[in-house]
Design goal:
globular; alpha/beta
Length: 383
Amino acid sequence: MLTQRNWAPIVYRRLNEVIQKHKTNPAKPKSKRPYVVFDFDDTTIIRNVQKGVMIYMMETLSYKLTPEEFSEILNSIQPTDSNAEWLPNTTAADLIADILSEYEWLYRHYINSSSRTLTIEEARQTQAFHNFRAKLYYFHTQASKRYSRLAGQPWVTYWFVNYDTKEFEDYCFQAFGWLTKQPFELYTFQSDDSGRAGKVTVNYTSGLTFPEETKELYDVLVEQGFEIYVISASPVDIVRAAVKYGGYPVPPENIYAIQYEYTPDGRITNKLDAKFIVSKNEGKTEIIQKHIQPNHEGIAPVMVFGDSMGDFDMMVNLEGVELSVLFNRVFDDQTQDIIRESVASNKRFVVQGRNELTGQLNPGAETVSIKTQQTSLYYENRR
């Protein structure tokens, strides 16, 4: 069965109990075997693959967008939102204008190979680069908080448009190789005070790990006859690349993530495919009920794994789940209810801590915060 490693004792015990109870012959048809559902970012792995690939793309300026195409993506927010204040006396439109101004300069001097005058090292030393990086990353953090992805609609932070799936998989592998070599540290991106938005400062946490505990868990589950599904709110091509890179035994057809449209020649667009459910919040439960349960004679997953409100509904409201495992990020939201329930019972819900300073699991329910460097179980105890 599983080895202890850094699993919290109660999580380790309950995982082994449920696996032992439901294990079966892997040769049985899929419909006759039990299954489990994992979130990916900050659950299967530590950190976020979409955000990591975005950071790597900023650091290497490897966009395939003309300034006009970049403008179209950034300005695909609702028109009324462009006048909303995102900083004191600064609107989304002001921020977008500054980003595009710096991008146009970087496009002329580096991104467009036909007019390139700088090396990537020289480009990264320019003030234009520092302004662009700080303001674009700030735009990403705000857009993710303020807007919801909707089926059939464009999304404002998909800046990997114009890659085809194979070259994007190769690019993601490069990004993961770079990201896994970065230390887990808190960085600050800062612009100067030029432009309509003025000075922008935003924090970013580096690093990416594929913990041995979850890799072994996936392997043991498959060996014991379980079918594994991944449901993620990150872009589907990035998640599939990360699953492949990490060596997780999950076939592509068992991965549900944000699906977008492709051009006739197979290149990625930023428009979400209207035929697919948005794989976040209640959408994860809907995917299980409509697309996974019918392949398993209508039964629910035996276990569900998640870390945030994006997973809360499937962890709490999906009937028939025997064990829900929460990876504790000490959020000030309803995931605190799962922690309190786990302390009271340890039956349906268990909690696994993390060490955000090392990018590893913490051998208990508490999490070591990279922001405070303190260990906390509940948000209200965080210092």
